[in-house]
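Need a sequence for this fold. Nothing fancy.
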């Protein structure tokens, strides 16, 4: 069986989750040298882990797809021709949109419903592109992979799909477990273990950063100054709103802006944090929840979208629109007994998720599609 992988969705701002997904499933296929499968990877960038073409795994580099418009050109006009020339049995799209003109059986992974729920975050052009092409892509696809039950429900609602066509394959957070922590980040930021809360993700309205800052200010105002924990912000600024939010953060005592950090530094921060504050307004999945749970970090997260299904019983759920709810949760995870219970339940929950399972189940969907298509013909 010859499988094409369209990885053009990795490029651009906001593609961090898609890249994590791609790296943790496709790298396993690349490393396993699967005897019965051949892979053709279409990508505008060369993966960091790429070590050259192999007998059953080749890269077709498409650097032309360097922005959204050129990506659309490649996906809709170039990929169909390449898929035919490479005699693919299945074309797997890792993010959102398929190739409408291709006659090769296709599978598309949907990560969220941002195009309908978070249009301001996505921007006009990408919203238009997704709303125009996602529905026909999904209707043309033989199967659809959704990364959470909530995302599957959202996509069925917005795209008028039959739910039986969707296979839910939840993601994982175990990719950080084998990385040694770089504890120098603690010295760099002048942090002691368990003396700080952690907030991760790029700064945007959907990430609820300003309410988190307001909640932290309320928490700090009600705490004895020598007992209040600090709040460490990890992530990048992608917009003017983000920069203005960072200016607000700089005015609040106890807030530390770490910016972007390496994976090893992130492991150290999770491991030594008193709690992850991940109270966003919408997530297709919520990988940081599992990252934190796997590293023994208590979790506070939102009662909306996919987050309750991902966190299980290993976290405190809050109304993300309520500043007082978020502040109350900060006080709760200061309690050693509550924190210890959350860590125990978090480990138990995180064990259910693994990238080996995601990779295996995704490949099974691709192989099953080829069998079904062969039987039809």
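Here you go.
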């Amino acid at each position: 069986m010859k499988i094409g992988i369209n990885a053009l969705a990795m490029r651009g701002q906001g593609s961090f989750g898609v890249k994590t997904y791609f790296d943790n499933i496709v790298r396993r296929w690349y490393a396993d040298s699967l005897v019965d499968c051949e892979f053709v990877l279409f990508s505008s960038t060369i993966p960091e882990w790429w070590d050259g073409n192999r007998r059953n795994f080749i890269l077709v580099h498409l650097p032309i797809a360097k922005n959204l418009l050129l990506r659309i050109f490649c996906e809709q006009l170039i990929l169909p021709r390449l898929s035919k020339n490479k005699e693919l049995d299945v074309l797997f799209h890792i993010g959102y949109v398929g190739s409408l003109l291709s006659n090769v059986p296709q599978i598309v992974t949907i990560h969220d419903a941002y195009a309908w729920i978070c249009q301001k975050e996505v921007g006009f052009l990408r919203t238009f592109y997704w709303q125009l092409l996602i529905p026909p892509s999904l209707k043309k696809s033989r199967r659809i992979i959704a990364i959470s039950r909530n995302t599957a429900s959202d996509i069925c609602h917005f795209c008028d799909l039959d739910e039986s066509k969707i296979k839910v394959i939840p993601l994982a957070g175990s990719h950080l477990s084998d990385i040694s922590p770089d504890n120098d980040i603690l010295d760099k930021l002048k942090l002691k273990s368990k003396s700080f809360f952690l907030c991760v993700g790029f700064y945007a309205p959907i990430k609820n950063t300003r309410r988190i800052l307001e909640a932290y200010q309320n928490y700090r105002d009600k705490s004895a100054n020598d007992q209040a924990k600090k709040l460490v912000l990890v992530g990048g600024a992608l917009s003017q709103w983000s920069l203005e939010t960072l200016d607000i953060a700089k005015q609040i005592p106890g807030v530390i802006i770490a910016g972007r950090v390496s994976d090893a530094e992130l492991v150290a921060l999770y491991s030594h944090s008193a709690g992850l504050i991940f109270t966003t307004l919408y997530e297709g999945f919520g990988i940081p929840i599992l990252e934190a749970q796997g590293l023994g970090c208590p979790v506070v997260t939102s009662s909306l979208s996919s987050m309750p299904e991902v966190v299980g019983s290993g976290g405190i759920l809050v109304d993300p629109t309520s500043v007082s709810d978020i502040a109350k949760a900060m006080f709760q995870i200061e309690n050693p007994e509550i924190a210890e219970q959350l860590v125990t339940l978090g480990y138990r929950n995180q064990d259910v998720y693994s990238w080996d399972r995601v990779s295996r189940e995704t490949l099974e969907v691709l192989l099953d599609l080829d069998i079904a298509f062969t039987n039809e013909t």
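For context: The radius of gyration is 21 Å.
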